[in-house]
Amino acid sequence: MNDDEHSTPDPNDQHGSVYDGLLGTDTSQWAFGTDFEDPLAGVDTTVPDDLDAGELATYCLALGDDALVMSHRLSEWCSNAPDLEEDIALANIALDLLGQARLLLARAAAADPALVPALPQGSPVPVEDALAFFREAIDFHNVRLVELPNGDFAHTVARLLLFSTVRLAAFEKLATHRDPVLAAIAAKGVKELAYHRDYAGRWFLTLAQGTEESRRRLLAGLTDVWPLHDELIRAYDAGPDVDVILDQVFAVSAVERPEVGSMTGRGHTEALSRLLAEMQVVARAHPEGLW
Amino acid sequence: MSEQEWPLYEVFVRGKRGLNHVHVGSLHAADDEMALRHARDVYTRRNEGVSIWVVKAADITASSPDEKDPLFAPAGDKVYRHPTFYTIPDDVPHM
């Protein structure tokens, strides 16, 4: 075997991406996908004068942290989902949210550079990675709903339904935000979240009306996440339209709103620290690493 | 709990520059709608598609390899069925 033929492609190769050769000059080949879009193409990235940069930064940080932590929980399903197809579907959703997190954390850093943790001089770690991997749990602004440990698949479906319904409603409004970058991020996110809500809603109905066992698990999952519904609604300043949509899903699934109280108190649960320990350990071991 | 497998579906995707749907693979799903969404998740992740068809594999009637000769061999020597006696202008695409 000739080792040269099987060496790992060097991403820094002067000749560009390892995928360049696949297409050659024949653009009629479509199988590898083309026409990728930069969501911020043509958007003015200066923070508008009439906006409070600190407020914008905190807001983007909270939205970014929700996406980051939810993405991590979903990514924990990799190789563990009930089916290969669901495995890929959950990973797709996780990657959508990771993309939102990246853009939002970068925007938070641009609006208020003081938020970004200090790294060794000359570290090549980008600001959004510094925010994701070098902050302590206490500095995260995510809602507690996204940090709860994973349960079974039905638990994930119930959490994703609440999260994507509320976040989609908020992003639809944010698409006209006065900050053009946040507006562009939201406009991109709306299409992604619409699919996430559709995915979660269909599975919610399927599990609720499936077997006795699937219904039992769905109701258990819903009961577990419901105490954090109030905090989610408040964080996203979601209006009654969210409740209408949730009630529609519940009605068609013949599920009652759980009669459990809201989880009180503030601050994160212990689950976030454990999640971050796993998510951040490699980056923290190499603060000057280039990925 | 029964471990019954979901039915198999065949997936066809039309690409942005493609003129017709092309078979890209197969997957398992409980019903047609789920198959469509699984196809979106499994086969259009790299920005390939603009349209998806799914069809139950069991609903496809396929020719048998045993019939290869009677089905296809008779066309093997009839070159006159190709319009090879025309010159195709360079600006006619997709020929």
List the helices and strands and how they pair.
The complex is a heterodimer of chains A (291) and B (95).
Chain A lengths: L19 H4 L29 H23 L8 H28 L15 H7 L19 H22 L5 H29 L3 H14 L3 H7 L4 H13 L17 H16 L6
Chain B lengths: L7 E8 L6 E7 L3 H12 L5 E8 L11 H5 L23
Strand content of chain A: under 5%
CATH fold node name of chain A: Ferritin
The level 1 CATH classification of one domain in chain B is Alpha Beta
Summarize the amount of helix of chain A as a percent range: 55-70%
First-residue to last-residue Cα separation of chain A: 30 Å
Protein architecture, described:
The complex is a heterodimer of chains A (about 290) and B (about 100). Chain A is an all-alpha fold and about 290 residues long. Chain A has a single domain, classed as Ferritin, CATH 1.20.1260. Helices cover about 55% and strands about 0% of the residues of chain A. In chain A, helix 2 runs antiparallel to helix 3, helix 3 runs antiparallel to helix 6 and helix 5 packs across helix 7. With about 100 residues, chain B is of the alpha+beta class. Chain B has a domain of about 55 residues: Phenylacetic acid degradation B (Ubiquitin-like (UB roll), Roll). Chain B has a three-stranded antiparallel sheet, covered by helices on one side. The longest helix of chain B is centred in the middle third of the chain and has 12 residues. The chains are: A mainly alpha (about 290), B alpha+beta (about 100). At the A-B interface, helix 3 and helix 6 of A face helix 1 of B.
In short:
Chain A has 291 residues and is mainly α. Chain A has 10 helices and no strands. Helices cover 56% and strands 0% of the residues of chain A.
